[in-house]
Design brief:
This protein is α+β, with helices and mostly antiparallel strands. The protein has four helices and seven strands, in the order βααββααββββ.
Length: 203
């Protein structure tokens, strides 16, 4: 199946709600300042949606650890295996954590706090990302099915039935024969008719 761009955008937005709440809580825990935590969360809403979208489109180009099942109607259903979701989450986390560390440093001006927030979210966000990915696997909205390919049947020599038209012959009053299609070949006199010896029947 193919994932449309708008699905990737909405999927990124729903993930951002989860992830931003996690970032705000972690930032509040390490900085002790709710104001700084909210600023970090607000900035990353925009940067992370972009990062998520690009990451999602890149992963769509690879079929690693996917299962394809052909349905009775000829369409193909693609399902991500569990370890694909985990590895995909880990790859996104690398770029996401780098983004968080940069934002946290600009907001707090403290390297230690920035790295603490980024290090902690490596573990929390991979778990949340995995759950988010598995939930979206159950939603078919924004996916287009593969068009089944019609396979031509092998050409075999076929002998067309030959229709045999049978004809009914009857004699008319003038001595001629009447041909009537669709009946067994028979000769029947409609009127008494005798053939003189030594003569032939006109057709």
């Amino acid at each position: 199946m193919k994932e449309h761009h708008y699905r990737s955008v909405i999927k990124g937005a729903t993930w951002r709600v989860w992830a931003t709440m996690d970032t705000i809580l972690l930032s509040w825990f390490f900085t002790g300042q709710i104001g700084s935590a909210l600023k970090i969360g607000a900035v990353e809403v925009f940067t992370k949606i972009f990062v998520f979208y690009v990451h999602e489109r890149i992963w769509m180009k690879f079929d690693w650890w996917r299962t394809r099942t052909v349905q009775p109607d000829g369409t193909t259903v693609v399902t991500d295996q569990h370890h694909r979701s985990l590895i995909k989450g880990a790859s996104y986390r690398f770029f996401g954590t780098l983004d968080t560390i940069i934002i946290a440093f600009f907001i707090t001006g403290n390297y230690t706090k920035a790295f603490s927030i980024g290090f902690a979210e490596v573990f929390t966000k991979i778990g949340f990302y995995y759950l988010h990915e598995r939930l979206w696997m159950k939603i078919s909205w924004g996916l287009s099915k593969d068009v089944p390919v019609a396979v031509a049947a092998p050409v075999s020599s076929v002998t067309a039935p030959v229709s045999v038209v049978e004809t009914k012959l009857t004699a008319d009053s003038g001595g001629g024969l009447i041909l009537t299609p669709g009946h067994p070949l028979t000769v029947r006199e409609e009127t008494p008719y005798a053939v003189p010896p030594g003569t032939s029947t006109p057709l």
